[in-house]
Amino acid sequence: MIFDKELRAEVKIQRDAIHQLLKHHLPKCELTLIGDSEIQLTWHSNPHCIRETLLTCSMYGDWQFEEHQWESQTYVDNYHYSTDLNVDYTSPANEVVNALMKLL
Predict the structure, then answer these.
(1) How far apart are CA 81 and CA 68, in angstroms?
(2) What φ, ψ does residue 92 adopt, rounded to 5°?
(3) pTM of the predicted model, to two decimals?
């Protein structure tokens, strides 16, 4: 969560621009905006497995990628990891999307 109001406002503008780019690049992915600094990307690969990823901005303005996968019947987390994308809120939105696309 970002506590600095000015940083949060800047991140939200960039997050919205990233969201628009991702709608174009990932048309089969369900995109959900969360708060001012996160985008949830969800794929339903089969009826029993859900892959969920988050593009989230840290409280310092750094963009990170998180991934979770679990079996939907038991909600047992199969795996979870987080990766720093080495871009921040001052980077252009297309650089953030390019860094994310390299991981997907």
Answers:
(1) 7
(2) -60, 150
(3) 0.85
